Amino acid sequence: MLVEKLENLKQEILAEIDKVDYSLRKTLTEIRVKVFGKSGHLTMFSKGMRELSAEERPKVGSLINSVRNAIEERLTAKEKEFENLELNERLEREKVDITEPSKGVLKGAYHPILDVTDKLMDICVSLGFSVVEGPEVESDYYNFEAMNIPKNHPSRDMQDTFFINDNILLRSQTSAVQAREMETRKPPFKIICPGKTYRNDSDSTHSPVFHQLEGLVIDENVSMADLKSMLTNLMKRLYGEDTTIRFRPSFFPFTEPSIEVDVSCPSCHGKGCTTCKGTGMLELLGAGIVNPKVLEMSGIDSKKYRGFAFGFGLDRTAMILNSINNIRYLYRNDIRFLNQMK
Ligand code: DAH
């Protein structure tokens, strides 16, 4: 009776396995559970062995084993067969046609701002400057007060600043690193700081995010003559030997005296064109002799030391060097534009 039942089960399950085709391959797992699972058919038979007599038990036991092996073998064979089919299907699906023409690789290009920053850093490092960085989220103290721009002073209006609260702001000038460096360094030293700056300003030549490069030299006996000769050297290396440089008196709260520096327009070589609005010259940077008040506020003895400083607009420099007429091109992230700059 039992032997017959086992034999029937075997035939029934084997037939069931044979019937499973590839599209229903998941049912193999169901069959596995149905036969070998916790309350599967064969498991139940094994459990039932307890009720058998001592002489029946080995006979039935070995029959159960042979049924188990037969089913297991058939299941495994079928699973293997489906695995192979699945693999072939995947290989077919993921086949790479190596004869197909390529779509081409989009190559990036150096961004013009990064390019002038690198050029200026190279020149300055060759002149003995160290490169430093400062925070873009800055305190009112370093951005303004330590630069001799007190709270409520009208000179603050020169820079329309993004305030985060009364004391924290997005730095409006890289000059903010001056006091930080003066507080921590022992003179003499020469530093430059390139980086992002922020002002509420937006038109074809202004962007709310822009870039500056600040320079600061502190030493005994530095003079306006040193500043002029250094900037002349720097400008000629950036714009070419034949560049004419003009120094004009100006005003900045942190320098006294202050100057602005113009160079002959590289597009027309001083003759006058649309880039320079017919003047033949382009305004490039502010500079000056560091106001002794600024030195003292940062703990530098203004009787012993003097300094000069300068601040470049990097976006403007990049625009002039690459004849870009709208600052927005620098921020559009258009690969076609970048590739033109190569
Ligand atoms: N911080 C000034 C600005 O953003 C530029 C500047 C002028 C920097 C004179 C200097 C300087 O270091 O000496 O308009």
Helices and strands, in order, run as HHHHHEEHEHEEHEEEHEHH
Q: Strand order of the main beta sheet, please?
A: 1-4-5-9-8-7-6
| Overall residue-averaged pLDDT value | 93
Sequence stretches where pLDDT stays below 50 over 5 or more residues = none
Major sheet description: 7 strands, mixed
What small molecules are bound in this structure? 3,4-dihydroxyphenylalanine
The strand count comes to 9
Structural class: alpha+beta
Gross geometry: elongated
Share of residues in helices: 40-55%
Distance between the termini: 90 Å
Radius of gyration: 40 Å
| Total count of helical runs of at least 4 residues | 11
Give the percentage of residues in beta strands.
Answer: 15-25%
Q: If you had to describe this structure to a student in words, what would you say it looks like?
A:
- The chain has 342 residues and is an alpha+beta fold.
- The radius of gyration is 40 Å and the shape is elongated.
- Helix content is 40%, strand content 19%.
- It has helices spanning 2-19, 27-36, 41-48, 56-93, 112-126, 140-143, 176-184, 224-239, 292-297, 314-321, 335-340; strands at residues 130-131, 137-139, 168-170, 189-198, 209-219, 245-252, 255-264, 281-290, 306-313.
- The strands form two sheets. A seven-stranded mixed sheet has the order 1-4-5-9-8-7-6, sandwiched between helices. A two-stranded antiparallel sheet has the order 2-3.
- Helix 1 packs parallel to helix 4 (56-93).
- The chain starts with a helix and ends with a helix.
- The structure holds 3,4-dihydroxyphenylalanine (DAH).
- Residues 173, 175, 214, 252, 255, 286-288, 309-311 line the site of 3,4-dihydroxyphenylalanine (DAH).
